[in-house]
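Researcher: Re-running this chain for the archive, since the previous output was lost when a drive failed. Same request as before.
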Amino acid sequence: MILFAGATTGFQLDHNASLTVALGLVLGILGQAAARHLRIPGIVVLLALGVAVGPDVAGVVRPGSLGEGLQILIDFAVSIILFEGALCLNVRQLRREGSAIRRLVTWGAMVTAVGATLAARLILEWAWTPSILFGTLVIVTGPTVINPLLRRIRVQRKVATVLEAEGIFGDAIGAIVAVVALEVLVAPSRQSFALGASDLVVRFVVGGLVGAAGGLLMIALLRREGVVPEGLQNVFTLAQVLLVFQLSNAFVHESGIVAVIVAGLLLGNAKIERADELREFKEQLTVMFIGLLFVLLAADVRLADVEALGVRGLLVVAALIFVVRPLNVAVGTLGTPLSLRQKAFIAWMAPRGIVAAAVSSLFATRLVDAGIEGGSELRAMVFLTIAVTVTVAGLTGGLVARALGIRPHGPGGVLVLGANDLGLVLGEVCRRAGREVAFIDANPAACHAAEERDFQVLYGSGLDENLLVRATLASREAAIGLTTNDGVNFTFARRVKREHRLTRVFVALRKGQRAVTQEMVERMGGEVLFGGPRDIERWNLRLGRDQGRVCVFRFSKGATSTIEDVIDDEQSHRSMLAIALQRKSQLRWVDKSAKPRAADLLYAL
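Model: Regenerated structure tokens:
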């Protein structure tokens, strides 16, 4: 509420818990919106915003007013964030890179814990207790930072898979190891060390079992038609996730993180209708919670504590970036098929995220309660680590990826609206020419067919702005509307062209329809795919019956002037569909102006 202090003093805000949460939510969303417009990592803006509105500067947001409610809020938010991250992991891709992922979150995590502990002990001259706790806290990287950066940078799929999985599983391992370390160090004894080791195993086992049971129950209920009423699937799953997290914690403290990751992994890889709607809903919640938590946790850090770290604090972060992380990756990827350049990029991308911030906040309170000094310094050091690593990775990640040559071949990926049979053929042509392809489709069966061929798939409408943002259009070289609805194809291409400023957009038109004409497409600034209206539905039908195949033709010196000269009559148009021309490493979709040269390759169906 607002308290008026009189005409001379104006008014001041009564800093109650409700107002703090409301301000945190609004500022978190505004900060991420501003970051998206500025094309910089959102967490950089959120951290700066949290400090600016916190008690040390503007005094608008006061996390202290929440009391124990802050930790409850953190628990709920972390459960949703990690569940959403696990929901998006693909088991097939995880298996391909399984050896690197396993080693990074075990041996690599051990290297990080030891290296960070020594850095804090030797550089900051801390006691062993806060040094060890700092080492365990910075094991984690975190999906809240890694995933948005990878969407913006666009790197090879295997590299992205390793980093995403390390962020998810590393959060669980790092958080549990850190909590066990705290329990042991607060009351060190021979018995506490033995109990700590057993507690570590128990937390993973209990969390895994509760998560598996919860995930399988969600799958069973969502698959049975009519059990969960239409429109309630998303909120039903949300409630289940929160229950799984808290139930696991009730059995064994801090095992809930493992539980929600296991549940998310199971549900995300199960064949369930509306699974992508669920992912989109959880992603929106994640965005909201990330904004809220980073603003609150940044506001809760005292600037004086960060300043007191001085140059030594920056040297510790530098040691993490340039010494500890490269050693982590060298040990964690030893003997894996990753190339040296891929390993170098993985070594550079280690920003810390929300779990490190949340657990350090908890540790600061626990250490004070136990009468151990160093809690506020520990939280400040973790905050400094998050701020520097996120800024460095966010601002230089694209440059490093380009310098190391680990971006997908070609100038950019291709976004295709329509994962039908013809679209999948077009995707295979892209892949053969070294292009990354992503599909958008609202048909669950079509999405599943595309995923089976290892394509990236976004479930939903191609006219949904949130989905287009997730499609990372800024990194695409072209967008193609290839559904059997000409109006949808045209509207999709026009929106991508005008609102997302993509240079090349293509529209597939059906032969015989009059709703959308070639002239309309050209005035909009697009191009008609296949050189003109074609019988799209007939080609999809043929491909569904396995009555079509892709052939590759090489043009000789006496090549004709246009594609139309190759397919010069109506019968040819019915039996052959020219798709794309490849000239060395350049791929060009066939339109009416496509002119082949000697040695060009023509992909035709």
